[in-house]
Amino acid sequence: MKEAIAILTGGGPAPGMNTVVGSVAKTFLAKGYRVIGLHYGYSGLFNPTPRYEDLDFFKADFIFNQGGSYLTMSRFKPKDSDFENNFNLNFFTENNIKLLVTVGGDDTASTANRIAKFLEAKQYPIANIHVPKTIDNDLPLPAGSPTFGYQSAKEGGTVIGRAVYNDARTSANWFVVAAMGRSAGHLAFGIGSACHYPMIVIPEMFNKTEITVEKIVNLVVSSIIKRKLMGIEYGVAMISEGVFHSLSDEEIAKSGVHFSYDDHGHPELGKVSKAHIFNEMLENKLKELGLKVKSRPVEIGYEVRCQTPIAYDLVYCSQLGMGVYKLFSEGKTGCMVYISQDGYVSPLYLKDLQNAEGKIPPRLVDINSDKIQQILNNVMHYITPADYEAAKAYVANPEAYDFRTILEW
Question: Among all residues, which ones are annotated catalytic?
Fold first, then answer.
């Protein structure tokens, strides 16, 4: 029987999913392998009747430059009992599968790590290689290398964000924009800095103080007042949805939001409009302060996950797909494929990246880097001690809206 590989996609979509799958398929098909696409993510590995199909050149060639994922995705997280009782080894043996390729973010990588350990413990001769994706850019790749999908999502978000800023300028209004990013603010900060937004709020900024609803709102008010002092009656505030992920239960209750949770225990942030919630809280604060400012909410999330990948990700994902074959041919397993900034393929072993719980921890924004500090210091607008006297025309206690005081920097 011809040797085969199986490939699955897990978590949420990101531009370039099909590029990876198509490139993996084309490369292995050319080497004489059968390529099996497994639908519904990891659930197929713990199902006696998984849904799968063969990927030939024509399918791979059709999908490789398309948005979305041809292979149906899933956030299924196997329990320990699933490994012992439901792992479908027959799927591998009956199809002569020698390699499992998993494509996904931190949760998918953590499960890939568990599968690698399981296969090794059981001495099953099946290699396991993971391809790191996420528009959140929060997998711990070296030297700031992006996860695939991030650059395309940032580009798509910037197109929306730029139009929103033009609207704000045109109508002399403020907008509150919320961008995806469960635990890290890479996407929100990337879009906000590309659009020169006067206020960007990401969870990493609260490295010296607890995140609260009041502090988030006060940061936006700080920017509004500062711009008034500058004679500017418009602006946009970008807020990462990750600040919700970092709020305490008490603070979430204050926001009035009731979250459901996914299989990985994460609040399902995509089910509620964070921009609407932030905007409503801001409007209440502005009314309390007697500031006549119109604000509108805009959500950036699902719009950028399945967009057509830009050239950067088309090339990057093609290289990652071909990199899977390179690592497999070298006998590598239990690893992520990594391509350095200068174009070399190497393995990142999942066991070396895991924390004490065996999970792959997210890569956060380095708030102290020049890249971030230059935006904070030269693009964003907010109250400083030098503004206190003038700001008293709008608020009695301007120090409460001092950017660095709020963050305890």
Answer: 136
Q: pTM for this one?
A: 0.90
Give tens-digit pLDDT for 108-165: 878 888 888 888 888 888 899 999 899 999 888 998 899 999 999 999 999 999 999 9
Classify the C-alpha dihedral 311-315-320-322 as positive or negative: positive
- The CATH superfamily assigned to 155-305+379-407 is Phosphofructokinase domain (3.40.50.460)
Please determine, for residue 241, whether its predicted confidence score (pLDDT) is greater than 80: yes
> How are beta strands 52-54 and 97-104 bridged, if at all?
unpaired
Per-domain boundaries in the chain: 4-148+309-353, 155-305+379-407
Which class is domain 4-148+309-353? alpha beta
Domains 4-148+309-353 and 155-305+379-407 share a fold: yes
Does 267 have pLDDT greater than 90? no
Query: Which of these, 73, 63, 143, 144, lies nearest to 104 by C-alpha position?
Result: 73
Instruction: Compute CA distances 316 → 54, 80, 320, whole Å.
Output: 24, 34, 6
Q: Report how far residue 156's alpha carbon sits from residue 109's, in angstroms, rounded to the nearest whole number.
A: 25
Q: pLDDT (tens digit, 9 = 90+) per residue, 270-314?
A: 566 789 989 999 999 999 999 999 999 999 988 999 999 999 999
- How far apart, in whole angstroms, are the C-alpha atoms of residue 172 and residue 295? 10
For 67-109, what is each residue's pLDDT tens digit?
A: 999 999 998 888 989 998 999 989 999 999 999 999 988 778 7
Radius of gyration over every alpha carbon of the chain, rounded to an integer in angstroms: 23
Q: Which sign does the torsion angle of CA 341, 342, 344, 347 carry?
A: negative
